[in-house]
Design brief:
By secondary structure, the chain is α+β, with helices and mostly antiparallel strands. It has helices at residues 2-9, 41-53, 60-70, 81-85, 113-116, 162-169, 202-216, 220-233, 310-319, 343-357, 362-376, 404-408, 439-442; strands at 15-26, 29-36, 92-103, 119-124, 135-146, 153-154, 180-189, 194-197, 251-259, 273-275, 278-282, 288-290, 295-298, 307-308, 323-329, 334-336, 397-403, 418-423, 430-431.
Length: 448
C-alpha cells in the first residue's frame, strides 16, 4: 500500500476508463452490446483490444470448456470428443473492467498468476511501444457467462497453474489433437530464406513463413536468442546430453500441421496460428537445428543421432552463390562496386544488362520492370499480375544481384538476375524480400 500511495501522490497512477459489455459469439465475429464505454478514440481502442484478447468465435467453445475442465468441474474422466462436447457452452459473456492509460507493466510483478492473467498490455498510448509507465493496458476485472437468458455466473479462470494443469491433463482427451489435414516441413535459414515442402497455396505459404520467422526470430540477435531459449528448455541443458554444437545455428526446421480444432486447449494441443477453420500446430518432436545447414540435431532429443539432408546442402549452395550487386536506373545508368568486377568484363556486363533490362528505352524498361516485380511479389501480392501494363507504376531503378559465374561466362551471360531492391522516386529503396510492399504497389490492391 505504501508504494501505491506514493505513486498516487506523485501523479503516477494510471488513468482508468471503466467499461462493461455483453459479448455474444457470431459466425463473423463477436457482437458487443455496450452497457458502459469510454468516449471518442478510447472506445475504438477498447473494442479492438477486446477482440484481440478474446478467443475467436470459432475457438470460444474450446476455450470455455478448457477453463471449465481446468477448474476441476467434471465428475468423471473425459475420454472422447463426445464427452467434451457434452459440456454446455454459454451463449453470453459479460466483461467489466478498465482501459488503463499511463500503466506501468512493472506493477504486475507482485501479482499472482490469476490476477496477472486479467491484464493485457497494449503498448504505448502514442506509438504502440512506449517506455515504462507509459503503456496502455486492458484490465478485465470481472468476467461472467450466462446460458441464453439465464443467470450470470463467474467465468472460470484462464490461469493455468500447477493445480489447474493437473486437473486438465488427467483426462485422456486432453492429449488428443484435432484431425490432421496437411503437414508441411519448414526450413528457415539464418540469412532469411524460408522453404516449405510440399509447397502450399500462396496465401498459406506466406502465413507459414511469418510463423517460422516469429518462432525463430528475425535478425542475428533474435535468431541466437530464440535458439538459446530452446536449448535451455530441453534436455540439451542436461550434462548427460550430447555435446552441444557451438554458436547460432545456420538453419532451423520444424513441421507445421494443419488440423481441425482440438476439443480442449492444452499444452499439447494449443495452436500457434489459425488458417480459416483450421488451426496450425508444431509437430511434436519436429523441431531441429543445424550448425551448417546439412547435419541436423533434434531440439527435444539430444541423444538422437544427427541426420544429414542433401536438400539442405542444395540450398546452402544457393546461399553461398557469389554475386555482385548492380544498380540499374531507368535512364540507362548502370553501376556496381568496381572492385568486385574485373575490368575486362565491365563493358560486356553493362551491355548485357542494358540489353536484358531495356534501361534507357522507356517502353522496354517498363515491360521488364513490371514482369520482374510481378514475379518477385507473386506470393505476397498476387493481385499485381492482374494490373494492366498501362496502370503499373514504372520504377526509377532496380538493384540486381548478378552471379559472378555469369559475369565471367561469355557464352551464357547473366542468365540469372535476382531483383533485390526497387525505388520509385530514385532515392528511397525498398527491399523486395524484407520490407513491406511499396506504397506505389500497395495502392494497386483491389478495394473490394
Amino acid at each position: 500500500m505504501g508504494e501505491a500511495k506514493r505513486r498516487k501522490q506523485l501523479g503516477l497512477m494510471p488513468q482508468t476508463h471503466p467499461f462493461e459489455v455483453i459479448a455474444q459469439p457470431q459466425s463473423d465475429g463477436w457482437q458487443f452490446d455496450w452497457l458502459r464505454v469510454p468516449q471518442g478514440d478510447l472506445a475504438r481502442v477498447l473494442e479492438s483490444s477486446l477482440k484481440e484478447s478474446l478467443p475467436g468465435p470459432a475457438g470460444w467453445a474450446a476455450d470455455y470448456r478448457t477453463r471449465w475442465v481446468a477448474a476441476g468441474r467434471p465428475t468423471d474422466y473425459l475420454n472422447s470428443v463426445d464427452d467434451v462436447e457434452a459440456i454446455r457452452v454459454p451463449e453470453r459473456l459479460r466483461l467489466s473492467g478498465e482501459l488503463l492509460t499511463g500503466f506501468d507493466p512493472r506493477s504486475l510483478k507482485d501479482r499472482d498468476d490469476d490476477a496477472a492473467s486479467r491484464f493485457f498490455l497494449l503498448g504505448s498510448a502514442s506509438t504502440g511501444e512506449g517506455e515504462e509507465g507509459d503503456h496502455m493496458a486492458l484490465h478485465l476485472r470481472e468476467q461472467q457467462v450466462a446460458f441464453a437468458q439465464g443467470r450470470w455466473e463467474p467465468l472460470p479462470s484462464a490461469a493455468m497453474g500447477e493445480r489447474a494443469l493437473k486437473f486438465l491433463m488427467q483426462h485422456p482427451i486432453a492429449r488428443e489433437r484435432g484431425a490432421l489435414q496437411a503437414t508441411y516441413q519448414v526450413t528457415h535459414h539464418r540469412e532469411g530464406l524460408v522453404t516449405v515442402d510440399p509447397e502450399p497455396p500462396a496465401e498459406l505459404l506466406g502465413a507459414l513463413e511469418v510463423l517460422a520467422q516469429t518462432l525463430h526470430g528475425q535478425g542475428e540477435d533474435a535468431w541466437a536468442a530464440a535458439h538459446q531459449q530452446m536449448i535451455e528448455r530441453t534436455e540439451w541443458a542436461d550434462e548427460a546430453g550430447r555435446e552441444l554444437p557451438q554458436g547460432a545455428p545456420a538453419a532451423r526446421r520444424l513441421t507445421f500441421e494443419l488440423r481441425e480444432r482440438a476439443p480442449l486447449n492444452t499444452p499439447l494441443t494449443t495452436p500457434v496460428g489459425e488458417w480459416g477453420e483450421l488451426v496450425i500446430l508444431v509437430g511434436q518432436g519436429s523441431t531441429e537445428f543445424s550448425p551448417d545447414g546439412t547435419v541436423w540435431y533434434s531440439y527435444v532429443d539430444p541423444s538422437a543421432e544427427p541426420t544429414e539432408s542433401e536438400l539442405s546442402e542444395f540450398f546452402n549452395q544457393i546461399l553461398d552463390l557469389g554475386t555482385v550487386e548492380v544498380t540499374v536506373m531507368a535512364d540507362g545508368r548502370v553501376t556496381w562496386d568496381e572492385s568486385e568486377v574485373a575490368a575486362e568484363h565491365a563493358d560486356r556486363l553493362r551491355r548485357d544488362l542494358l540489353d536484358q533490362t531495356g534501361a534507357g528505352e522507356p517502353a522496354r524498361w517498363a515491360e521488364f520492370a513490371r514482369a520482374a516485380l510481378v514475379e518477385a511479389y507473386e506470393d505476397t501480392a498476387p493481385f499485381l499480375a492482374e494490373v494492366p501494363a498501362a496502370d503499373f507504376p514504372v520504377p526509377q531503378g532496380l538493384k540486381l544481384d548478378v552471379p559472378l559465374d555469369a559475369i565471367e561466362d561469355a557464352e551464357h551471360p547473366n542468365e540469372l538476375l535476382f531483383e533485390s531492391q526497387v525505388t520509385f522516386d530514385g532515392k528511397t529503396w525498398a527491399d523486395i524480400y524484407l520490407d513491406e510492399l511499396p506504397a506505389e504497389l500497395l495502392a494497386l490492391r483491389p478495394q473490394n
